[in-house]
């Protein structure tokens, strides 16, 4: 005879909590954060939004 299906989310969570460690998936290691290059706005980039106030923003 099989195990009955859970009838609520709480039962499902309880069922999953009872899994042996050997059957639980292992999460891949999270890599260390990388340093980002400094972000800079040059004159050409700033010129693209220079007239933005004319559009009502």
Verbal overview:
The protein is an all-alpha fold. It has helices at residues 9-17, 43-48. The radius of gyration is 27 Å and the shape is elongated. It starts with 8 loop residues before the first helix and ends in a 9-residue tail after the last helix.
End-to-end Cα distance, whole Å, is 67 Å
Uncertain spans? none
What is the general shape?
Answer: elongated
Proportion in helices? 25-40%
Strand content: under 5%
Structural class, from helix and strand content?
mainly alpha
Output the number of helix runs: 2
Mean pLDDT: 81
Region (Disordered): 23-42
Quick structural overview:
This protein has 57 residues and is mostly helical. It has helices at residues 9-17, 43-48.
Provide keyphrases for this structure:
57 residues, mainly alpha
Question: Helices and strands in order, then pairings?
Answer:
Elements: H1 9-17, H2 43-48
Region (Disordered): 23-42
